[in-house]
Amino acid sequence: MSQVPRPVPSSRPRRVRADVLTRVGWIGVLLLTSVFHFVRGAPVDGVIYAAGAVVLALDGLGWLRIPLRLRADRDTVRRRVAAGVLIAVASLTLAVTPLYSGADTAIVVGLGVLLLPVAWANRPGPAADTDRAALRRAAIAWSVLIAAGCLWEVGTFFLGRGTPGGITDFPALSDLTDPLVAWPPARAVLVACWLLGGYALVRRGWAR
């Protein structure tokens, strides 16, 4: 008597649960970071992180969809030249504007708003297993890096407030990098590396 083959259980529900848990976790991290910035007296930073949490929540609910599809074959020479010009102009402009000024903030926010539709464009189809594995490895690496930075900032904040001379003995990451970014040529190079890194990540996403 032949046996009826049993259906292989699908791994899709497990993937969906993992995606939901990951998204909820990042929303929680952004909200906690927002609260932390409000507590330490930086309401602007708190609003930015809270807005990020809202955007992730809206995207998870399916209310944020950008009808833009970008494929690797559309990454033409013209677009590469346009990206290079934008990176060069932004780097030179941020190098000459006063550090932490209104113009500085407006340029950074403007770049984010301008590039958000490109980075958030709809993918043409479901990702393959190899793509998911690569995405998982990248997510773990970025999570470890971001968590380490957050722990540093939280630790220096409480140590700086709770010990005499703590602000000098336990500087924040921004205090450590301020002498470097205060020099315009170094700031231009750092901004260029930041934007080139983002462009490389976006192009890598197009190719998948």
Explain how this protein is built:
By secondary structure, the chain is an all-alpha fold. The protein has two domains: 17-64; 71-207, no CATH class. The protein is built from eight helices and two strands, in the order H-H-E-H-H-E-H-H-H-H. It has helices at 12-39, 43-60, 77-96, 102-119, 129-162, 166-169, 173-181, 184-207; strands spanning 66-69, 121-122. Strands 1-2 form a two-stranded parallel ribbon. The radius of gyration is 21 Å and the shape is globular. The N and C termini lie far apart (47 Å). The mean pLDDT is 76. Keywords: Membrane, Transmembrane, Transmembrane helix. The chain crosses the membrane at residues 20-40, 46-68, 80-100, 106-122, 134-160, 180-202.
List the helices and strands and how they pair.
Elements: H1 12-39, H2 43-60, E1 66-69, H3 77-96, H4 102-119, E2 121-122, H5 129-162, H6 166-169, H7 173-181, H8 184-207
Parallel strand pairs: 1-2
Keywords: Membrane, Transmembrane, Transmembrane helix
Transmembrane segments: 20-40, 46-68, 80-100, 106-122, 134-160, 180-202
What attributes characterize this protein structure?
2 domains; mainly alpha; 75% helix; 208 residues; membrane; single chain; two-stranded parallel ribbon; transmembrane; 3% strand
Task: Characterize the biggest β-sheet.
Answer: 2 strands, parallel
Are there runs of 5+ residues with pLDDT below 50, and where?
none
Q: On the 0-100 scale, what is the average pLDDT?
A: 76
Alpha-carbon distance between the two ends: 47 Å
Instruction: Report the principal-axis shape.
Output: globular
The secondary-structure element order is HHEHHEHHHH
Radius of gyration: 21 Å
Count of the separate structural domains? 2
Roughly what fraction of the amino acids lie in strands? under 5%
The helical percent reads over 70%
Number of helices: 8
- Order of strands, main sheet, comes to 1-2
Count of DSSP E strands?
2
